[in-house]
Amino acid sequence: MIRCTVHGLSVWGPGLSGWAASEAVLAGTVPWSEAECAVPAPALLSPTERRRAGATTRLALAAASEATEAEPDRAALETVFSSANGDGAVVGALMEALQGEEVALSPTQFHNSVHNAAAGYWHIAVGSTRPSLSLGGHDAAFGAGLLAAAATALVRGGPVLLCAYDVPMPAPLHGARPTAFPFAAALVLRPAEAPGARAVLELDPRPGTVPEAVPADALAALETGNPAARALPLLRALAARREASLRLAAGPESHLELRCLPC
Amino acid sequence: MSGRASPWPLAISARTVVTALGAGVEPLRAALRDRISGLAPARFPSAPDGIWTGEVPGLEEAAPPPGLAGFDCRNNRLAELALRADGFAEAVRAAVARHGAHRVAVVVGTSTAGIEETEQAYRRRPEGQAELPADFDYRRTHDLQALPQYLQARLGLSGPALVISTACTSGARAIMEAATLIAAGVADAVVAGGVDSLCRLTLQGFNALELLSRGPTRPCAGDRDGITIGEAAGLLLLERPADAPPGATLLLGAGASSDGHHMSSPHPEGLGAVSAMRAALDSAGIAPEEIGYVNLHGTGTRANDAMEDRAVHHLFGAAVPCSSTKGWTGHTLGASGAIEAVIGALCVEEGLVPGCLRVDQPDPEFRSAIATANRATPLQRVLSNSFGFGGSNCSLVIGRA
Question: Per the database record, which ranges form the Beta-ketoacyl synthase-like N-terminal domain (chain A) (predicted)?
């Protein structure tokens, strides 16, 4: 079992425009209502990098920025960026461009197509030389990222930013891999004994997959619409400062038994 | 669990590679010794004119078993060839018997997974049809998770599975995170490494960046002109030394860093590279002079090799021989860190410093000790470097305690 603590938080998704605006909704004291989320421009990026970064990177950076607002030094955090689809707009445009007779790919699009593009922009934005991990994981990408980030906090002993994000891909990729809406969730994790935590997490990887539950409400119905929205049950427990035992898909053949203990 | 446990060292209980030199460790070992390159003029469909590649032979015979046919794609065929070679699948079965299927994790890296299947799906569409063909299986081919899912299904594993995609450090970074999972207590053994396959995206993308060599790559040469892209699979079975065969070569440490500088150009002074190498040495608890050979990332581009020379010289001076083995295999992108970890182990076991292929003289501007001929010498420890787009850096230390 891995123990770690949760510190800063962020969420961006339908009707969830940042943690500050969404905490009461997630806690259940204000009803959720469907609304497009307007992601702010990444203020931490220089104007040049801001022009180069697409919508997927902007979403990831919005979540990463908010979750680290209270951090004394953003550059001190290791990072885990977790995304099933990566930047589908870039990959889709490159796939189309490869179909031409005379192929001429955009160099900027090509380097933006790497799965660690969002992580790269983040580390440039905050001037961080700390290690960074970028993960995939299909619908289990959030759970996989949480496992990797918690293991990193435990083994290397420092603060870790986990940022999970996904954006619908353009057609025709969308038809082969539908994602219903953009969603991002970010958490700052520290080792178990770190002071000032919102909650302690206990993670235990177990074999077997998790059956899809029938959604209990409209907010829960978002969980299957985007891999990063699988964070919602944990985010709701954290917002409500409620003790919770959760099961979270973390891989093709495994899941996490997750306990959330408010501090 | 609370408190920190050191991951190091871990034992390489088993290893397998598939490269342009063929399937298995033995063709690679012989080619390193005999200085035979696996690179050839590109045969891959619609490759840019004049380039060479490190294409793996025998993929047509490497279809997944019938029950896993939905996973069929170039990338998973590379993984399949690797599982069949070097007794690797059998070694994993033995690890399952020791620890249980749920205690054997899979942590693997890939930059493009089965995206080549998607490229074909776009092409297979009839004139006027926008949708991809109905039989195109995105989840089991293109999706990054297709790789660990295939390995788990093929090996009967039910432990944690992570797929890492940090461009050209993916394979090395996967090996580092495998150690993190063992140290965190959530796995007793890990199938770790990387698989990456030739595809139009990377061939045309590196061509657009004007980074492809015309002819075979010549890393560290004064007139080097770029990368030769290869494809490969490299897998290591990592366990605590007490669980491994006696005398197994060790993974002694690993370190990573970010440049935080630019998306596709390395930091000119190699600051990120220096901090990754230093972190790897620190994790292994050794000083630079205890390294006998540095296996460079050495892609053959002007910028990478110059940066890496400065970074290596900063830490090692001109005292430690170093070279790139990409003249043998090509730059296998997300697999390179994994196959070069195996090469590092082979160098220790053989007592071999493999000098850069097709390079008479190293770049006269370089100050580190670039080897251009093979040298037989007892080696205890090898440092292996990987650097990638997005400013990702990772170094591994392989050898004996």
Answer: 35-204
Give the tens place of pLDDT for each residue, A244-257: 999 999 999 999 99
Q: Inspect the interface and report whether the beta carbons of B389 and A251 lie closer than 8 Å.
A: no
Residue B221 lies inside a defined structural domain of this protein: yes
For chain A, give the number of residues: 263
Contact state of B161 with A103 under an 8 Å Cβ cutoff? no
For residue B176, is it within any domain? Answer: yes
Contact at CB, B162 and A152, closer than 8 angstroms: no
Residue A37: what pLDDT?
85
Out of B131, B163, B205, closest to residue A175 by CB: B131
Predicted complex ipTM exceeds 0.90:
yes
B356 part of a folded domain: yes
A137-167 per-position pLDDT tens digit = 999 999 999 999 999 999 999 999 999 999 9
Q: Is B297 a catalytic residue?
A: yes
Which of B132, B184, B271 is facing A175, going by the closest CB pair?
A: B132
Domain count, chain B: 1
- Residues A103, B16: Cα–Cα separation, whole Å: 36
Which is catalytic among the residues B220, B314, B331, B356?
B331
Report if residue B35 sits inside a domain.
yes
**B7: closest chain A residue by CA:** A155
B271 burial via Cβ count (<10 Å: 0-12, 13-18, 19+): buried
Q: Is residue B155 a contact partner of residue B378, using CB atoms and an 8 Å limit?
A: no
Q: Which residue has the tokens 């890939």?
A: B110
Class of domain A2-262 as given by CATH: alpha beta
A–B: how many Cβ contacts below 8 A? 250
Q: Please tell me the distance from the alpha carbon of residue B341 to that of residue B280, in angstroms, as a whole number.
A: 13
